[in-house]
Amino acid sequence: MNKILTFIIxxxxxxxxxxxxxxxxxxxxxxxxxxxxxxxxKFFRQYCTCFVNSFSEIFSDNELDNYLKTTRDVTQDPxxxxxxxxxxxxxx
Length: 92
Known about the structure:
Blueprint lengths: L1 H18 L4 H13 L5 H17 L2 H10 L7 H14 L1
């Protein structure tokens, strides 16, 4: 019985993770917004890739749209700040 419960719980967790992926179009739009507003250096290629991949692990296209619509100032949002800091620290 415990094995079955564990399998069911893991299945739900895996299903939730697998749906949180941006489409190629959304990924390219977010990357373009990040990279095109930068000085287009090697650092920003790596940083923007990290940034978009992090959001792709968390959000699907619809979830990202809802996040952006419901967040007043994205640049002050704790999730945005955490992802920004992690990617900055990774490539600085």
